[in-house]
């Protein structure tokens, strides 16, 4: 296992970073060009669109996933009837592949036979809802599918955290007359800090590598309006036959992962060591 980790993961990563400074085309070749690939990368309009889409998708996905997941978990934590059934229903989409989710939501958001067609069939002829065909809002159509699939996992993580709260804390809050929303906001959520940090890392890693949903729903269209970094890397490495550019883009994605993981590791392990 150590050999696999070192050779496949660490070795492959180092090899990719090294060849991102070369002029590799169809096949890797060590023709050193310095930072030229990175200059070309950040000068490419397509990469700028991909980064902008990832930023919009990432921020909104993180906020809504945490908010909706925690809200669902808080509702299920009230010991409601048929809790197991509701938990299964909410978690079921996560069992599907992103390709299946993307295709399903491509049909649902299709203006000819999806939500728009159904509402217009009910009499609202002026109703318009076709985010996947509007370049200005297409990333939000992808976000809808991502939230539908991923929120169930966040809910389960949050529910596990809530079930770990001592029942005496709830009783003390009720005795002191503290409103429930204040109990959640000032007592429960701070106690669930490790759960929130772990959830954020899981969500962030999925955001950075988002690819399947985009390919299944829009293939990066209309035009390049829904382009994301992972698709940029794939297209340049396997279609444009420009390995150097693909390596540079994947190295930037690696840097994004490091920016997410290193602070988390510092907060978790550094704080534990100081304690």
From TrEMBL:
* Matches recorded under PROSITE patterns: ABC_TM1
**Which key words tag this protein in UniProt?**
Cell membrane, Membrane, Transmembrane, Transmembrane helix, Transport
Topology within the bilayer: Multi-pass membrane protein
Q: Which GO terms describe its biological process?
A: transmembrane transport
* Cellular component per GO, a single term: plasma membrane
Every ABC transmembrane type-1 domain range: 51-266
Pfam family of the protein (one):
BPD_transp_1
Q: Where in the cell is it found?
A: Cell membrane
> What InterPro entries does its record include?
ABC_transporter_permease, MetI-like, MetI-like_sf
Gene3D superfamilies annotated for this entry?
Answer: MetI-like
Say where the protein is mainly found.
membrane
Oxidoreductase as a keyword? Answer: no
- Transmembrane ranges, per UniProt, are 54-76, 88-108, 137-162, 183-208, 247-267
Family of this protein: Belongs to the binding-protein-dependent transport system permease family.
Query: What's the protein called, per UniProt?
Result: Sugar ABC transporter permease
